[in-house]
Amino acid sequence: MKIILLLLSIFTVATASAESLLLPFEQAEPARGEVVPYGRAADALKAEPSALNYVAKLAQWTISEDGKEYNSSFAVPVWWLNRQIIVRVGRSTSAYEVLVDNRRVGFASSGATPVEFNVTKFAKEGRHSLTIRHVDAEQNRLSGELATLKPLVEGVSVICQPTIRVRDIVCNTTLNDNGEGVAQFSVVVKCDALNAKRARFGYTVHLNDTTVLTKGYSDITLDMRREDTIAFMARIPKNSLWSANNPHIVTLELENRIDNRPVEYMRRSVGVRSVDVVNGVMFINQMPQELKLHDYDPAKSLEEQVSAQNNGLVIPAYYATEALLTQCDKLGILVVVCSAIDTMSLGDHIRVGGNPSNNPLYLATYLSFNRAAYYSTRHHPSVVGYAVAKGKTTGINIYESYLMLKNIEPRLPIVYEGNLDEWCSDKIVLR
Predict the structure, then answer these.
(1) Segment 317-365, tens digit of pLDDT
(2) Is residue 58 within 8 Å of 285, Cβ to Cβ?
(3) In angstroms, how far apart are the furthest CA atoms of the chain?
């Protein structure tokens, strides 16, 4: 009996150890696009660092000798009290953990996409230390080239938002019979309070800072830790839709009021466009769009990589930063974002002990990497597709990642160039 209990104990410990190595994102907020809250409309119009009363960008770091530990600090001023404080890490070359005042906040199994941690309970008024520590995690080997780069952490900021706050902003578009865009804006709102909160969100969508396309407000009440969406629509003139040849941008302004007091203001540039794939052909705004993509080269400028022979890029999630994709939006460069999974360096065979693409223990990691790549980039009009991985090996995790992305994004192409003519990739020519 003792032997049986001992074996069961060993098996339980081993299983728990394997699962702990494969945790996707621990204590992290769900992935989202970057939101920049301002205290006043006038501050958002300035768009200057001095206007960022609710965002602290951390640029000064003390780095350990091996390059694996980054130390900095941030201050919580009095006007941040009774609000939510979120640490956003833009990207990292490795899995990492985050510590505030040497207390562990959470863990990210990949630094290829932005990850956010709510540190409100760790950060009171005053100055706090912030540590980002690279860790040796099993997921590091999934990212191929990324794991070979020099240790790096970039784009770290501390964001302060009210207890009922904007979580994300999404725009989905269809065309009416006249070819005009019918843009549905969805603002994801979350309540972090322990009791019900009510807020009023005023919105304005306009062209060229002058022509108002729609304006109004929406009230929302959320109870403890609830999340919901407010939606409104705007009709976009045909000649103001975003496309590769006409990368036109409209502007969305949001004002969040609680108890009739403005607590959060946002201003976002939005490219409104419709994308569909029919019989292997992509249509942008109902016009056929040929895709001539090649792999992104970080050593070259975007202008050098796009020509008459190439109208777009396949960009790995690590390089698909907010700044780079915003530039693609403005230049009309088409983008397929590839998740942080590279199967090429992990062997070809998919039997036990082989490529993780066919190992169910890695399923949560594959899904989380793809989910993060999607939700952190979906607000960019230049992003017209997603690749579930780089490489040539299929398996259960590739299939499930494809199905998951198709479920949450049925209109854009979901591809995997190593599909070996199997069903884990949409039939569309990328090159």
Answers:
(1) 999 999 999 999 999 999 999 999 998 766 666 666 668 888 888 999 9
(2) no
(3) 80
* 274 to 238, 243, 289, 292: CA distances (angstroms): 11, 9, 12, 19
Strand, helix or coil at 85?
strand
pTM exceeds cut of 0.70: yes
Closest to 266 measured CA to CA, from 278, 255, 279, 258: 255
Q: How far apart, in whole angstroms, are the C-alpha atoms of residue 113 and residue 362?
A: 18
The pair of structure tokens assigned to 377 is: 């980039």
Instruction: Output the 3-class SS for 338-355.
Output: ECCCECHHHCCCCCCCCC
Residue with tokens 């300035």: 46
Q: Give the pLDDT confidence of 297-327 residue by residue, as tens digits.
A: 999 999 999 887 889 999 999 999 999 999 9
Structure tokens at 279: 């019989």
Straight-line distance from the first to the last Cα atom of the chain, in angstroms, rounded to the nearest whole number: 63
Is 141 in a helix, a strand, or coil? helix
User: Running DSSP on this structure, what letter comes out for residue 311?
Assistant: -
Length of the chain: 431
